[in-house]
């Protein structure tokens, strides 16, 4: 039994705290931090790429699915981590990046997209056909039947790709699928909101029935053996400055209803910035897959800014990397990835470019100017000794670990540990062994 289906099995046996975090990122430092932390417990790690990050045209990372797989595997190999303990996921696979095209071409590209993900060995496939394409009516939402019908087409394409992959990988486990029509926008809310509506039980039932009907209509009779989860809105979201925290009472009708469907779990998107206790409540309530993305690179950025503040005091000005200034310059030179999302005065925009919870600066981290500034920052701080007292001032959480000898004071390790601190919130929420183990033991 593969790791994802084992979670479902364990929950059916009564392990209500069993779940898994889904780390949705293409950042090398973040992925390395997630892998290193998983290695400490010989754990599985689920790393996902979205359709706008990785697709047949390269996405904004420049990687196709096989490229992303090899990118993650190279990081794992470098850290001595078993590739078999990596679960690769494809997120929002569907017409996400082709919404301006008519259905025929958008779906043809979506079919090619999902086939490439399955052919590359991705094991968690989120089929997302919830968005309109160019020839869909603009004055009303998509029907469940339309969404499910397109999803069934993509499922069939995945099955074809899987059967083809079996010819060269006869022991390959079948991918596990996630469906759902109430799918939050990738990367957080784009406009300020007053409240978040929790998915209604009847909406879940309609979605499930629509998929059953469409699968039967298209001659697919065993799909629900491979669908392990459904994306819902449990009432969590974030924007530039606001966080909508999980309220289990508000979600109680939804979570109580899902007890009648033990064959699937709920998947929560936009769980970024939730408290560890809120994340734990979500898992206990049946939201067993916790998707997190921007908060990971936000944590990395926090660490890099803290290192930059220490660099400013330890390294001559003319030698400094000036990482925050370089990041601001690159974002101003190429505003496409933040301009539609951030609003306000020039002063407000400057703050949002650096500090927004939406973390649009993550789209720039792979640019040569940014990677060069990060490398220079690390190199500069390796040439000096960061005083422990200064580390306590700027990175107090990492200071404790360095003080106690469980974390290296190397600047790269310090930056990655900012991500580890966030990862631990999710591990606490989803993994029973974290309740009885000392996370700082080794």
Side by side, the strands of the main sheet go 1-2-3-4-5-6-9-10
Largest sheet: 8 strands, parallel, barrel
Question: In angstroms, what separates the terminal alpha carbons?
Answer: 29 Å
The CATH topology name of the largest domain reads TIM Barrel
CATH homologous group name of the largest domain: Aldolase class I
Count of helical segments? 16
Radius of gyration (Å): 22 Å
Could you estimate the helical fraction of the residues in percent?
Answer: 40-55%
- CATH first level of the largest domain: Alpha Beta
Alpha-beta classification? alpha/beta
Q: Report the principal-axis shape.
A: globular
User: What is the CATH architecture assignment of the largest domain?
Assistant: Alpha-Beta Barrel
Strand content: 5-15%
Average pLDDT works out at 94
Tally of extended strands? 10
Q: What is the N-to-C order of secondary-structure elements (H for helix, E for strand)?
A: HEHEHEHEHEHEEEHEHEHHHHHHHH
């Amino acid at each position: 039994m593969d790791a994802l289906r084992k979670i479902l099995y364990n929950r059916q046996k009564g392990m209500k705290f069993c779940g898994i975090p889904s780390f949705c990122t293409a950042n090398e430092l973040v992925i390395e931090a997630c892998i290193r932390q998983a290695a400490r417990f010989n754990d599985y790690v689920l790393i996902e790429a979205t359709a706008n990050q990785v697709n047949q045209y390269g996405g904004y990372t420049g990687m196709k699915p096989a490229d992303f797989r090899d990118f993650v595997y190279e990081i794992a190999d470098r850290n001595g981590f078993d590739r078999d303990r990596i679960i690769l996921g494809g997120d929002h696979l569907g017409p996400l990046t082709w919404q301006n095209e008519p259905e025929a071409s958008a779906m043809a590209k979506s079919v090619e997209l999902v086939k490439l993900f399955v052919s590359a060995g991705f094991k968690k496939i989120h089929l997302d056909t919830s968005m309109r394409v160019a020839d869909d009516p603009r004055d009303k939402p998509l029907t469940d039947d339309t969404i499910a019908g397109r999803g069934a087409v993509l499922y069939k394409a995945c099955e074809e790709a899987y059967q083809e992959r079996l010819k060269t990988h006869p022991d390959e486990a079948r991918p596990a699928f996630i469906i759902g029509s109430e799918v939050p926008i990738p990367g957080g809310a784009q406009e300020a909101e007053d409240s978040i509506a929790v998915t209604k039980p009847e909406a879940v039932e309609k979605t499930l029935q629509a998929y059953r009907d469409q699968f039967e209509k298209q001659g697919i009779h065993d799909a629900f053996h491979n669908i392990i989860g459904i994306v819902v809105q449990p009432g969590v979201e974030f924007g530039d400055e606001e966080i909508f925290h999980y309220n289990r009472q508000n979600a109680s009708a939804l979570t109580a209803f899902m007890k009648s469907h033990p064959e699937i779990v709920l998947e929560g998107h936009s769980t970024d910035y939730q408290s560890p206790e809120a994340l734990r409540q979500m898992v206990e309530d049946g939201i067993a897959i916790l998707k997190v993305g921007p908060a990971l690179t936000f944590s990395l950025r926090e660490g890099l800014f803290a290192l930059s503040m220490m660099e400013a005091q330890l390294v001559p000005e003319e030698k400094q990397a000036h990482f925050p200034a370089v990041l601001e310059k690159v974002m101003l030179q190429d505003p496409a990835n933040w301009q539609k999302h951030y609003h306000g005065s020039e002063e407000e925009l400057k703050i949002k470019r650096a500090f927004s919870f939406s973390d649009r600066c993550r789209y720039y981290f792979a640019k040569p100017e940014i990677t060069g500034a990060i490398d220079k920052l690390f190199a500069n701080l390796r040439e000096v000794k960061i005083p422990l007292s200064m580390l306590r001032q700027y990175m107090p959480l990492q200071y404790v670990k360095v003080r106690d000898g469980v974390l290296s004071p190397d600047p790269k390790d310090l930056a990655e540990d900012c991500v580890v601190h966030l990862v631990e919130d999710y591990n606490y929420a989803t993994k029973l062994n974290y309740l009885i183990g000392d996370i700082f033991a080794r």
